[in-house]
Write a structure and sequence with these properties.
- The protein contains 9 helices and 8 strands.
- By secondary structure, it is α/β, with parallel strands linked by helices.
- The chain has one domain: P-loop containing nucleotide triphosphate hydrolases (Rossmann fold, 3-Layer(aba) Sandwich), CATH 3.40.50.
- The strands form 2 sheets. The protein has a 5-stranded parallel beta sheet with strand order 2-6-1-7-8.
- Strand 4 and strand 5 form a beta hairpin.
- Helix 2 crosses helix 4 and helix 4 runs parallel beside helix 8.
- The longest helix is centred in the last third of the chain and has 17 residues.
- The mean pLDDT is about 95.
- The protein binds 2'-deoxycytidine-5'-monophosphate.
- 2'-deoxycytidine-5'-monophosphate (DC) binds next to helix 2, helix 4 and helix 8.
């Protein structure tokens, strides 16, 4: 076993399977998994519930002061779940209402500063797998291993559709496609830390790779980092 602990940053487009890979990797290495998208989603839920106007900087700053986020491991499922001001919102943040607004909220400078500061504290002791859009570029630019995940857009639409259909059988594939295209666009084109590949990231295009193949490849990269 390796005693050295590293930071593994996983970035990429929506619905590339980042969280699935990150969770499995964290379990394998006995690392902490942090889903930063869940943080932006929980903030979005708070803004929706409290009708925070996204154009009102003062209202945003005031709202952020009232938000406390943390993760807890569910003792039954062993999955990490996000809490917003003490309430488990792990399921609520997956709804389309939140998905429709989250990119807009995640593009707000004050929101990003709030979330990034907390992510940096969470990862300070290393031994983490963190997934998001700006982990290797902004949150941990010195992460020992950076992975940039991507896949063909239609493959991602089908994956997201399967996920959402399980929660809401009324959802249409066009709705999912529209939401994904819009999120890709906003995430990649926002002024504040847009989604982009870090120069030193390893690219994982999983359009034609199954989960086992991806995992084997990433484990090779991890072992390479740990032994250097
Ligand atoms: O990974 P996800 O789909 O749960 O992310 C939700 C949204 O949050 C998505 O639009 C991108 C944004 N996000 C971000 O801007 N930065 C991160 N580190 C993580 C997510």
């Amino acid at each position: 076993m390796f005693t050295k602990k590293i930071i593994i940053a996983i970035d990429g487009f929506s619905s590339c399977g980042k969280s699935t890979l990150a969770k499995r990797l964290a379990t394998q290495l006995s690392y902490t998994f942090i889903d930063t998208g869940a943080m932006y989603r929980a903030i979005t839920l708070y803004f929706l519930r409290n009708s925070v106007a996204l154009s009102n900087q003062h209202a945003i700053e005031a709202a952020l002061q009232n938000i406390e986020l943390h993760f807890e491991i569910n003792s039954t499922t062993k999955q990490s779940e996000i809490f917003l001001n003490g309430e488990n919102v792990a399921h609520l943040i997956r709804e389309l209402l939140v998905a429709d607004k989250v990119s807009e909220v995640a593009a707000i400078k004050e929101v990003r500063h709030f979330a990034v500061a907390q992510q940096q504290v969470m990862g300070a002791k290393k031994g983490i797998v963190m997934d998001g859009r700006d982990i290797g570029t902004v949150v941990f630019p010195k992460a020992e291993l950076k992975i940039f995940m991507t896949a063909n857009p239609e493959t991602r639409v089908l994956r997201r559709f399967d996920e959402l259909y399980a929660i809401n059988p009324h959802i249409s594939i066009d709705e999912v496609r529209h939401n994904l295209e819009l999120r890709d666009y906003i995430d990649s084109n926002r002024a504040e830390s847009p989604l982009r590949q870090a120069e030193d990231a390893r690219v994982l295009d999983n359009t034609h790779l199954d989960r086992e193949q991806q995992f084997a490849l990433v484990l090779e990269w991890v072992n390479h980092c740990l032994s250097n």
